[in-house]
Amino acid sequence: MLCQIYTSAEEEESMENRTTGLIGLYITGAVTMMLGLLGAYGAYREHKVSLIVFLVCMIIGALVMIRGGIPTAITRPQIEGMLEQKFREFLPLNSASFQVKNMADTLQTKLHCCGLFSYTDWNGDIPASCLCSMEEEEEGYECKRISYNYLMQAMNIYSKPCFPILIHYVLLFADVMLGVFFTLAALAVLGMILSSIMIHQLRHPNRAPLILGIHTIFTPGPPKYEELHNPPPPY
Known about the structure:
This protein is mainly alpha-helical. The protein has helices at about 1-5, 10-45, 50-75, 80-90, 100-110, 135-140, 160-205, 215-220, and strands spanning about 145, 155-160. It has two domains: about 1-75 and about 175-205, no CATH class; about 85-160, Cd81 Antigen, Extracellular Domain, Chain: A.
């Protein structure tokens, strides 16, 4: 969302960034599918080379996911403070640069909000992107009526500021990325364990695997003490 907002001023650049992101997703999905097929082939055919390549890829993948997940987990609690400090540097919005005004207009249009932290960020010079129509108010968007100049003229604007809405989506994205990183890391570790077991079994094909069945586990052993039955003496 942040990338889309910052690049929305130039549609061509925005489309180029989206295309690059889609290509990255396609490449990631294709590589993941190929690794899965490689592991499945090695397990089904008991092909040692395929399993070794799969094991190496799982080790690299686990390290990459952990390398990406740990910094994200450390940075996540600091995101809100960092963004708030950055956005407060843009105030007041009415005297900000063209790029900042364009970003604020895009935020207000897409998120149905007014101002970064309050409508007073505009110092009375409220743009049209803050205006809330009667139709939008009937649809459920929260609006309020304010006086915006010395003549006490009133206008209907969105009542919510943009920053709390934006930070909600940013933190949600960070949580999703954390889940993706650590889930893929856990799957990579599981793949490492299973492929290591299969490679070990292929290296020692004559060693019978230890299999404990239910009958073996729950069969009672002989009692510690047995009663001796002596035959009666002859008369």
